[in-house]
Design goal:
mainly beta, Methylamine Dehydrogenase, Chain H, Immunoglobulin-like, six-stranded mixed sheet, 2 helices, disordered N terminus, DUF11 domain-containing protein, Reg_chr_condens, Signaling_Regulatory_Domain
Length: about 650
């Protein structure tokens, strides 16, 4: 029950062993096989963003909720974290819980009879305490089992502590440990993820191999035997298979392969292996996924299994007496079937407890289904659910990680937030020239929808609706001269809160005075290239003609040719030539200026030699008057393109 987090390969620690209840409840639990062990840990690939908000709901007899009480909770309540601590992962075990802090320490709380809290005592804790890690060691990932705990260190080693009846700590003994010891890994092996069950443990090696140790009555170690192992052995994976995540609960082990298939081995009494049989497997077999389906996450519960598909669906198989498969029935399945999710919902992570199941949605909500006698579904009731319902999260919070303990559930959460970024094109324009404003909105609570308001200072320019990509665009010609401070304000949509961009400066330049009595519209510019296609080594000559159509002298007529798109594939030959006026060339721009008599034309020519295949693009710009708005535009443009094809023909 480690935190099921997006991308984290869960390490399950499920072996939820007995929940010691009293009176009638004890009898009921026994009848329901509550002696089950907890499970496994999840996947530690990408830790959740650090947050100071951990939540828990459900069974709390041993303080595993972490709120300082032993009161059961039917909706998530806040875990009482130490002051100033932020977390990146949580993991729920049988009756205890673990967490990784953003600085690589480990917190633990709940039951401690076997030393599973790792604080050197056997004292139950109702609020988190620090695990006594070896000096200088930091941790990236944890997995809580039934009465034991595992952790991966930042240098790829594995720590273990707690119960060790069947060698599940992997240190070569069966001695319980109340502080962490190093697992005796094979020489040269480093580990990326672990999963703790009741009496056995799994690990993923950095090279994609699987390791297992502990109890092996049903072949759950996957080494082809039923021999108990007190130090890790390699799982006998199918030829060519590499794994990225493991999970385990009870005596069944699961894995995801690097190509998105599912593997399973061990106990198969209810079809939890997912191969269409009820036959125990001593080595991994492929799960019979629906045709064309690949998976990204896998989770093992007490005799049931879950998976997330690459397109965000949820699959389930195995035991279903309490509705833990979420398909609306209580019928067992020996092959995966699809869980009916609410319309439009996709999931990114999943986890399984003793008899309940969790899924993290792409918009930061949590779905839960199955057994709920202790409120572990977090929907405010103790009603069993055979299809998914939404957990009741604190208002304004979104979940970033989930983990199912035996009968409790853990979450990491953070405030819902959006971010708005703004761009403008162009950032320098003339009065009346079109300026395109584009806002991009992101949100951690799902796809942002709704309206973006564009502002010039405090003045509203206009509004635009976000599209499916979170983008809104507004084109305006109304900006006044000067340096305008433009912002985009996303108005929010209920789940995604409002946000405002940083200002973007758009400079609207005053209309330039024409150089003399002639208006800008009296300057006529033409441009040609003598070749539309050349071979490497051949020449192309550009000719620009500037004509004064005014009846008086046009002073300081000018144009600029941006040759950036030519110089990548060609080189200037000689010097540019102007029939009148003055031409300068400072790469990548050529500039001409001159006085023109009434009706006079200046002709400017320049030649380039093609050096390699490509396209030669250049852009002549000059001042002109746009007839549709009767306003001066600074960048009237003529673009020419010449294609360079292959080598020079001989």
């Amino acid at each position: 029950m480690t935190m099921s987090r997006v991308g984290m390969r869960k390490d399950r620690r499920r072996r939820w062993g007995r929940v010691w209840l009293t009176g009638l409840m004890a009898l009921v639990m026994a009848a329901m096989c509550m002696i089950a062990d907890p499970a496994a840990a999840r996947r530690p690939a990408a830790a959740a963003p650090p947050t100071d908000l951990a939540l828990a709901t459900g069974y709390n007899e041993s303080g595993q909720v972490g709120d300082g009480t032993t009161t059961e909770r039917t909706v998530p309540v806040e875990v009482a974290l130490p002051e100033g601590v932020t977390l990146t992962e949580v993991s729920g075990g049988g009756n205890h819980s673990l967490a990784v802090t953003s600085d690589g320490r480990v917190l633990a709380w709940g039951q401690n009879l076997s030393g599973q809290l790792g604080d050197g005592t056997n004292i139950q804790r109702t609020t988190p305490v620090y695990v006594n890690l070896p000096a200088g060691v930091t941790v990236t990932h944890v997995s809580a089992g039934w009465s034991d705990s595992l952790a991966v260190t930042s240098d790829g080693r594995v720590l273990a502590w707690g119960g060790n009846l069947h060698g599940q700590l992997g240190d070569g003994t069966t001695t319980p440990r109340s502080t962490p010891v190093f697992v005796d890994l094979p020489a040269g092996v480093s580990v990326t993820q672990v999963a703790a069950a009741e009496y056995h443990s799994l690990a993923v090696a950095s090279d994609g191999r699987g390791l297992a140790w502990g109890w092996n009555q049903y072949g759950e170690l996957g080494d082809g035997t039923t021999t108990e192992r007190h130090t890790p052995v390699f799982v006998l994976l199918p030829a060519g298979a590499a794994i990225t995540q493991v999970d385990t609960y009870e005596q069944t082990s699961l894995a995801v392969t690097s190509d998105g298939r599912g593997l399973a081995w061990g106990r198969n009494q209810y079809g939890q292996v997912g191969d269409g049989t009820l036959t125990d497997r001593h080595t991994p077999v492929y799960v019979l996924l629906p045709t064309g389906t690949t998976i990204t996450q896998i989770a093992a519960g007490y005799y049931h299994s879950l998976a997330v598909t690459s397109d965000g669906r949820e699959l389930s198989w195995g035991r279903n007496l309490q509705g833990q498969l979420g398909d609306g029935t209580t019928t067992n399945r020996s092959t995966p079937g699809e869980v009916p999710l609410p319309a439009g919902v996709t999931v990114v992570d999943t986890d399984a407890g003793q008899f309940h199941s969790l899924a993290l949605t792409s918009d930061g909500r949590v779905l839960s289904w199955g057994y709920n006698i202790f409120g572990q579904l977090g929907d405010g009731t103790t009603t069993q659910r055979t299809t998914p319902v939404f957990m009741i999260l604190p208002e304004g919070e979104v979940a970033t990680a989930i983990s199912a303990g035996a009968y409790h559930s853990l979450l990491l959460a953070e405030p819902a937030r959006s971010a708005t970024a703004l761009t403008a094109e162009p950032t320098e324009a003339a009065p009346g020239q079109e300026v395109s404003l584009t806002a991009n909105v992101t949100c951690n609570a799902g796809a942002p929808t709704g309206t973006v308001t564009f502002l010039d200072g405090d003045t509203v320019i206009g509004t635009a609706e976000l599209d499916a990509t979170g983008t809104a665009t507004l084109t305006t010609t109304s900006l006044e001269p000067g340096q305008r401070q433009i912002r985009a304000r996303y108005e929010g949509n209920g789940r995604c809160p409002p946000s405002t961009s940083e200002p973007v400066t758009v400079t609207i330049t005053e209309e330039p005075e024409p150089p003399g009595p002639c208006g800008w519209d009296k300057l006529k510019v033409e441009k040609t290239a003598d070749r539309t296609a050349v071979r490497v080594g051949e020449h192309v000559t550009y000719r620009v003609r500037v004509t004064n159509t005014c009846d008086t002298v046009f002073r300081d007529a000018s144009f600029t040719d941006d040759l950036s798109g030519v110089l990548d594939d060609a080189q200037l030959v000689g010097s540019p030539h102007a029939s009148t006026g003055h031409v300068t060339y400072v790469p990548p721009r050529l500039h001409w200026v001159g006085d023109l008599e009434p009706g006079a034309t200046a002709e400017i020519t320049y030649t380039f030699v093609a050096r390699k295949p490509g396209k030669l693009h250049n852009h002549v710009t000059w001042h002109c008057r746009a007839p549709e708005t009767d306003k001066v535009r600074w960048d009237c443009t003529i673009t020419t393109t010449t294609k360079v094809i292959g080598t020079k023909h001989h």
